[in-house]
Write a structure and sequence with these properties.
single chain; two-stranded antiparallel sheet; alpha+beta
Length: about 70
């Protein structure tokens, strides 16, 4: 996936990101986790769907790693 540049602007007393239309943001809210070098932005609903799919695979293959605990 290519790098996307988002513009930061002032909205009242808050800072906000203006995301490009081409990004096609679907979620109404995202979780933003600060890191030492920036932020990690995740869609909680998409993360829940991925976790549900991983749980459905549990036990289907003896060598499949279990990352759902």
């Amino acid at each position: 996936m290519p790098t996307i540049t988002a513009k930061v602007f002032q909205a009242g007393n808050s800072k906000a990101l203006r995301l490009p239309r081409g990004l096609k943001v679907k979620a109404k809210s995202y979780q933003v986790t600060p890191t030492a070098t920036g932020f990690i932005v995740t869609d909680p609903a998409a993360e829940a769907r991925r976790l549900k799919a991983l749980r459905a695979l549990r036990g289907s293959c003896p060598d499949f790693p279990d990352h759902t605990k």
